[in-house]
Amino acid sequence: MVVNCENCGKECKNERGLTIHQRMSKCGKEEADDVIENANDVNEVDEVDDANDVNDANEVDDANDANDVNDANDVNDANDVNDANDVNDANVVNDVNVAPIKFIDLFCGIGSFHYAFNKVDKDFECVMASDIYEPAKRTYQHNYNIEPMGDICDIDPNTLPPYDVLCAGFPCQPFSQAGYRKGFDDDRGTMFSQVMRFVKTNTPKIIILENVQGLLNHDNGKTFSTIKDELTAENYTVIHKVLTCNDYGIPQMRKRLFIVCFKNIKIENIDEFFNLEEYKKSTTLTEYLGKNFDKGVAYTLRCGGKNSPINDRHNWDGYIVDDEEYRLSIDDGLKLQGFENIQLVGTKNENWKMLGNTIPTIFTTIIAKQIIKLCTI
User: Fold this and answer.
1) Distances in Å between the alpha carbon of 167 and those of 84, 107, 136, 283, 374?
2) What is the mean predicted confidence (pLDDT) over 73-81?
3) 195: left (phi over 0), alpha (psi -120 to 50) or beta
4) Beta 206-211 vs 255-262: how paired, if at all?
5) Rounded-to-integer distance, Cα 170 and Cα 210, Å
6) Reduced to 3 states, what is the DSSP secondary structure of residue 298?
7) Which residues have a catalytic role annotated?
8) CB 354 within 8 Å of CB 346
């Protein structure tokens, strides 16, 4: 049966109480309503989608912000790590720079090398000292807290720890004008051969030898040539120079020969090692000791001849101060050899013997400074 739709008036078949388009499809009004509803649904969906999109976008932004924070944290962490690495690297560099320069002190006496090295740089480290004169050994131990070994002839170089610098003020009497100048014919002259035992066994990077200037022309220069030849045979580069105290701020006539040798070491311009113009300094005995001496420069301190008549050629400790005779004191002797704040052990005669035998610290200080300045050990 055909009937009219109650909503839209459209004719349609009636089946079982329902119009066909009511049951099978929507009428025009319902379709319009559905369109509106669908549109509303779409809008609602779109709004929800938009809201979700906004939320998603916000979440993304939040995530990005979080990532930015994380990235910043990562950067900060990386920077912290880098900073830490930089600090560690700096520490490594510092560790390298402060590695001690180790030395041995043969014929050490009262320790001119040790005194000067400590004064110039605390990173010098003495690993062995030796001497046969008991007052000097006791003085060395008292001032540097190291007990020197005895006779160099009894020391096995193989028993020593590694070291970089060998220092040796080997006996000068065999070559000195004040001695008999027997050279290698004197038992003390053979001490250079003992030094070479250590050189050949331990191969130090630097060798510093000290002696009187008479060594240069002893036996028409043959003695010095022998010493130099033995050192060059061990592949050392050998340089030498005579230094005078009065040129470097200590008003004393004392002159000493220094032989410095290098092997397996980087040195900036070896020809500059004994270019010592920067250390030149002039002073007078009056300025240096604070007394009105009639003489500008002191005699060379010696082991013998003390208390000789003031006009005797052997005199070295007698002066005129304020028109009166004056004899050098132990404190004067220490200062004229460049020592401050050390104590000598033993009798006065033993003290003077040690002072007469020692190396002025102005020399050993300059050499230590040149090593620090020019050498990479």
Assistant:
1) 41, 8, 16, 29, 18
2) 46
3) alpha
4) antiparallel
5) 7
6) strand
7) 172
8) yes
Q: Name the nearest CA neighbour of 303 among 173, 141, 205, 208.
A: 173
Task: Write out the two tokens for 125.
Answer: 């480290």
**Residue 139 sits in which domain range?**
101-376
Taking only the tens place, the pLDDT of each residue in 203-251 is: 999 999 999 999 999 989 999 999 999 999 999 999 999 999 999 999 9
Supply angle C-alpha 124, 129, 131, rounded to 5: 145
Residue 67 reports pLDDT greater than 70: no
Contact 246, 252 (CB under 8 A): yes
In-domain check, residue 259: yes
Residue type, 144: Y
Q: Over the chain, what is the mean pLDDT?
A: 81
CA distances from 90 to 94, 100, 227, 233 (A): 6, 18, 44, 41
The two tokens of residue 333 are 């002797």
Residue 359: both structure tokens together? 């190396």
Domain count across the chain: 2
Residues 216 and 303 in one domain: yes
The interaxial angle of helices 348-357 and 134-144, nearest 10 deg, is 80
Q: Do 28 and 105 sit in the same domain of this protein? A: no
Q: What is the 3-state secondary structure (H, E, C) of 304-317?
A: CCCCCCCCCCCCCC
Token pair for residue 232? 């060059």
Q: What region, left, alpha or beta, does residue 221 occupy, with left being phi > 0 and alpha being psi -120 to 50 degrees?
A: left
Cβ count within 10 A of residue 332: 20
How confident is the model at residue 172, as a pLDDT? Answer: 60
